[in-house]
């Protein structure tokens, strides 16, 4: 997720459920199969989905699993001392100073990309392409008719740009200023407020341009376009928006303690489109997280079986 990730609402899933192993005959490769693998449960639904997919598949391999609620930055202390075993969805644009320190000290190991296709930037409902001809190119936003359509009493004569909540941090206002755009960035009150405004705009066909990220369940039910961003004044995080990598991080002793689990997690991937559908089921439809994940696993054996089979070898 973007820098907002560590501030998204904590879903309150204080799970510490040991899942009994059910797959016999793999003990030669499992390692310490009677000691639970403790997976970090971070603060956003996408990470809950990824973590529960990994957990349920580790159970199929024959492991016990505990889900441990963890903060985005504090998780690295837990991974460093082994009180957390692994974190499977770490957004690398938001790891703080503690990640490079624990990595350099060889207390943690980065075992590769989750292959989660991420996006971050400026979005608009697709009908805006008629309001601002030339979208998705950013220069379309500078056309007088587009600025007028997006102007509000709060921002006039400027157009209104809906930004992340103020306490998340955002580069939108900086990029607007870098490119002398006639826009005022107005912070949303919360993630929920961002989504609510997108949905309300979609329903009323109201002009809107806003900061957003993916995967997110709102992208599974709203037809949006992504602005082709203006050139970066500087190649820095403050002046540029680039899709972040998402990595899988484990405690440095993980591979020696749970060899098959280590091989499995190295191979483990999550598809962003599939994740968004599961997020929608959990966040919007109120379905049970474990049940949603189990349904995906039951229907997608062809996707995950190679990871599990490869880990048995």
Give a verbal description of the structure.
The chain has 13 helices and 10 strands. The chain has helices at residues 27-30, 45-61, 75-81, 98-104, 128-131, 144-150, 172-178, 191-204, 254-257, 259-267, 272-284, 289-299, 301-312; strands at 37-41, 65-69, 86-91, 108-113, 119-125, 159-163, 183-187, 210-214, 224-226, 246-251. The longest helix has 17 residues, at 45-61. It is elongated, with a radius of gyration of 21 Å.
Read across the widest sheet, the strand sequence of neighbours is: 3-10-4
Question: Biggest sheet, open or closed, and with what strands and sense?
Answer: 3 strands, antiparallel
Give start-end ranges of low-pLDDT stretches.
3-28
Strand coverage percent: 15-25%
Instruction: Tell me the span between the first and last alpha carbons.
Output: 34 Å
- Radius of gyration, in angstroms, nearest whole number: 21 Å
Query: Helix- and strand-based class?
Result: alpha/beta
Number of helices: 13
Multimer state:
single chain
Helix content estimate: 25-40%
| Average pLDDT figure | 89
Shape: elongated
InterPro entries: ABC_Gly_betaine_transp_sub-bd
Pfam families: OpuAC
Keywords: Signal
Protein name: ABC transporter substrate-binding protein
What's the arrangement of secondary structure elements?
Blueprint: H1 27-30, E1 37-41, H2 45-61, E2 65-69, H3 75-81, E3 86-91, H4 98-104, E4 108-113, E5 119-125, H5 128-131, H6 144-150, E6 159-163, H7 172-178, E7 183-187, H8 191-204, E8 210-214, E9 224-226, E10 246-251, H9 254-257, H10 259-267, H11 272-284, H12 289-299, H13 301-312
Parallel strand pairs: 1-2, 6-7
Antiparallel strand pairs: 3-10, 4-10, 5-8, 5-9
Helix pairs in contact: 2-11, 2-12, 2-13, 10-13
